[in-house]
Structures
1.
Amino acid sequence: MHWTFVDQAANPIDEAAAAWVARRGRGLGEEEEAALQAWLAADRRHVGALIRAEAVFATFDRARALGPLNVERLAPHPSRRWLLGAGGAAIAASFVGAAAVSLWPRDQLHEHATGTGEIRSIPLADGSVVTLDAASRLAVAFSGRERVIALLAGRALFDVAKDPDRPFTVDAGALSVRALGTSFSVERLGSDGADVLMREGLVEVTRRATRGSGTTLRGTDRLTFAAGKLMRRAPDAQSVERALGWRSGMLDFADVPLGDAVSTFARYGGTRIVVAPEVAGRRVTGLFAASDPRGFALAAAASLGIRAESAPNQIVLTR
């Protein structure tokens, strides 16, 4: 397997979180522990950042212990910035179930992951329910003052139990979603992108790298952050339910790049679809069965005027 990592700068909060993780690994004195708690209390984004940093560092530790994958060869001297940039995100997503976030007591921290084609409904301790899409992964950290979830890969629907004294926050890529009691889905898009889809209620979405005011979403609003840009839409209720059709095995694509649609299908298994680079950017729209990737590939080829070359275990889409 060939690995390619990009050394991208992490934002200042992630840099500080990585520094705290490194210091905790050496052991904190009373003054340092008090300073850490003060840092966590100073900004609600700090807790999520620390959880993500712990997850990435714990993944490296476990990977070294497993042996067959030579982590030192992949990154001889990984810096905190490298770990929390694109490279760290790629590694964290590659080792499903590997991270063990050690900041929180064991009875307050839980990790959940789904395999290819697996969708799970997960009741949380506060009464909230998470529906976790196929090939997805998240970490849950609840305390007496807040509820934090880090969506590390894939997609999830959150039906949030109301608790005004403990805000419910989902961190996904560059976005942080804060709610009291509502229903919304979040999907990771690449290394730092994310899509937030409202089903009902009210949430505030902020970019973790900034301290500005957030964007309020209500009703059936949708907010997507990709390629460094934010895009807000207001789909109707029927469109929202179509977009959430993955819970019952249906995948809804609305003007989505072909390459992204194929990546979504890969989470559900079945026939492998290979997309040639020259057609990966073509846009597709429609509702398709997650269990029929071959049918999707043939339909996409017909609508886009491209070729679909079949093989026993895969189908290739090309010009």
2.
Amino acid sequence: MQFKSLEIFLAVLKYGSFSHAAQHLHTVQSNITNHIKKLENELNCEIVTRQTPIQATSAGQDLLRYAEQIVRLHHQAKAHFLSDDQQAFAVKMGSMETAAAMHLPALFQYIFQHNSRFQLDLHTAPTRELIDLVENWKIDCAFVAHSDPIENLFSMHVWTEKLVLVSSKQSEIELNAKSLHNSRFIAFKQGCSYRRVIELFLQSHHVPASQIIEMGSLDGIINCVLLSMGCAILPERYILQSPYCDQLKIFELDEPLAFSKTYLIANQPKTWNKSLQMLVKFIEQYSNEFYGKNKSLEP
């Protein structure tokens, strides 16, 4: 069923004859007749009467309802893609939980100050899962921690976090192989970039990453640390802003483990709708304004 056939069907009913419809559509009457016959053959029923003025049959009345909806949706879709300011659907954004907790409230405030009607739908997950979701078109963009830009994806460096190891003040942990071998670490599930830093940190001290307890939230990780169940590696900025900061011991990490880059990732720009284009522009402006050219974060 061709869209053009539906437009001609509507024109025939509006103007009451094949000839008048042909005049208004700037075509020949035989073209009008052929499209109506094609519709009738496809639907296996007569959709218009053959008397003047032409009217819809009962079957034609059913088709009329669908045709009007289809034509209206066609015009709405066309207007959406050609308009400079329409946002019919929310941008589906992904983020690591740490970024969502520390950075996104201020970012969202910045966006809404510039466009109060902007729509966002946020999903939090570990970095590996977020990359998969973007690559498979399940979300539009995501904030992920990664050492380098993601291959085959648009990757914009937005900030760099300083990471630290934290434990409770009651903990007797020391940064040596013997102490670390007897220590537990609290982390998100596999695929989390900070968990990967824990594994690399232990590897650098020749300690197997065998005692990692998985938690599903930042609050869960911090509470476990406070109860001396283990230690964690998290952004220093998050720890210093935490109400529990004075109950924690903070250990510096050596480079390169001490720094973690955060990228905004998406599929290639030629695939973006106008809402995603606008969002990326807002994020780039925000990143340059608040984090500067080197994207480093001072606690």
3.
Amino acid sequence: MILWKRGTSMILCGKETEERRQHSTALIPYSVYRCRIPIDFMNVPLHWHSEFELNRIIKGEGEFLCGGERWKAGAGEMLILPPNILHAAYPVSDVELIYDALVFSPVMLGANSGDRCAMECIRPLLNGSAVPAARILPSMPDYSSLWSCAERIFFCVEENSARYDLMLKSELLRLFWILESSQVLPCQEKPEMENWEALRPALEFMMEHFSEGVRVEDLARISHLSQSHFMSCFKKAAGVSAMEYLAQLRVKAACEALASSEKRISEIALSCGYGNLSNFNRQFKRIAGCTPREYRSQSSNAMEARSRKVSMEFS
């Protein structure tokens, strides 16, 4: 796992489901993550949060889901996600995907202000009356300005001080100003999203109860959809079936337990919803690409290597 600073605390990327993680506080209204898929975790499952998110792809290629859109995005591209929109990230075949994600509160853009800037340019992004054209491509006319702005934004975050937070706010506003001026971020009607919204209760239920017996009919009932319509909507939104998504949640939790504890594999399997160890081993290898024992060994070796690197840097 990759650790980045947020104030005086350290954020472990991929440790918890997004709804449990606190991305911002009144004192430090943002967090930053270095995401490496599938090196540190298999994928970023479908989720949402109340903050904006800026993704800067450093290396490789991945598949991103945002609202009703699905893209394959690669190195040099950026994504800007508005608050409360369902989104996810998946690897593309065996290509490693590395991207930086800045998750920041709307207050960084002055959303609480009553001036015309907030009323006309920022709040429409919060109340759903407008959505950003979230994908920024190298072929866009103002791309160089946008990428340079993003570099300054992540530099400010790394400096991690109140003084650089001041510059960070100005650079975020500059980024949105460029997007508005170049009409990359136009005010547009929000696409049809009722079915996506209906899935939120089911997603919450799966994240809370993945270790229990979860049935499709129960998820459909929670979503107030017929079973066939639920399965169709879920596959369209998440890119996988509900049961495959559940399996990914379980294996993701197992990966975290294998890397962070010395529990027996059979105990971990049971705590992640697998009563049959053979089935757990089979599902784990199918999703993670290795056996649980191999994953634990690889995680231990990677942690030792990073510890040696940190020791050398400070020696």
